[in-house]
Design brief:
It contains 14 helices and no strands. It is mostly helical. It has one domain: ABC transporter involved in vitamin B12 uptake, BtuC (Orthogonal Bundle), CATH 1.10.3470.10. The longest helix is centred in the first third of the chain and has 39 residues. The protein is globular. The model has no long low-confidence stretch (mean pLDDT 85).
Amino acid sequence: MLARLGLPLSLLLLAALASLIIAIGVGSAQISPAQIWQVVMGNNMQGEGDALAHTMVIDLRLPRALSAFAVGGLLAVAGALMQVLLRNPLADPYVLGLSGGASIGALAAMLGGLGGLVISGSAFGGALLSTFLVFGLAHGSGGWTPSRLLLTGVVVAAGWGAVITLILALSPAERLPGMLYWLMGDLSYARTPWPPLLLLLATCVVLIPLGRSLNVLARGPQQAAALGVAVRPLEWCIYIAASLLTAAAVTTAGSIGFVGLVVPHMLRLLLGNDQRLILPACALAGGTLLVLADTLARTMIAPEQLPVGVITALLGVPTFLFLLYRSR
């Protein structure tokens, strides 16, 4: 079992490290892997060029690359959990309207002229509000089912979309660019990667031991109950975990599409449907994908930067169509 899990995870870990080295080294000023190693290990560096390399690595590129890795991993793991919860391979982290709720909170803070931590806090609060709203409306008097939860999330997301359009229509022209970049996903202001990284690590540590129960739940609640799985508490755990992961990702980088949909779907086609392997693989592959996408976003038309959500959409649409064609 360990050997079967070890090889693909080792390859994904190497790919993740390579993507981080590329993200740190590529830009307006190239930094060699040897310089990156010296800076990260804290070796004494002298000269103006070495000081510039230290500033670019430690203060600029490394925090952004780690933030991209954390956000990509959070979205991919959340997508895998939502697909298990809803038993739908097309489910993604935003299907229950969390992105819309977070967007309302962030845009309202921007419209009020606030910034920094207030925007992040408002986005997180909006995501949690959307979570409680969807769960409360879907629960009703007879409990919730995956189909009822999905339909409620779709309707709530449509409502949030209308409110977002209204806010953009009423916003001053000078604040629209920042709002639009946030809605399309932007890592330019992500400078604190450690909270989402720690959340990603903690989630994987907690959920991987539940992999067998998640495997059984993916086959249906009746079969899971017959095999001794506590279905309802496990579904609540999945829903809460996926909501927190999505809220943290949206708070850090705005709305970034396709990562939580394409990565779990691709890994299931390549590695099977064992959640003990899929969840850590999603964390590594999702982080790697978003790090490379963000590197493209900031270098493709340098010195201008593109929203990273544009790159993930351009990569995700043809990839997902190809995966659907292969799995007919």
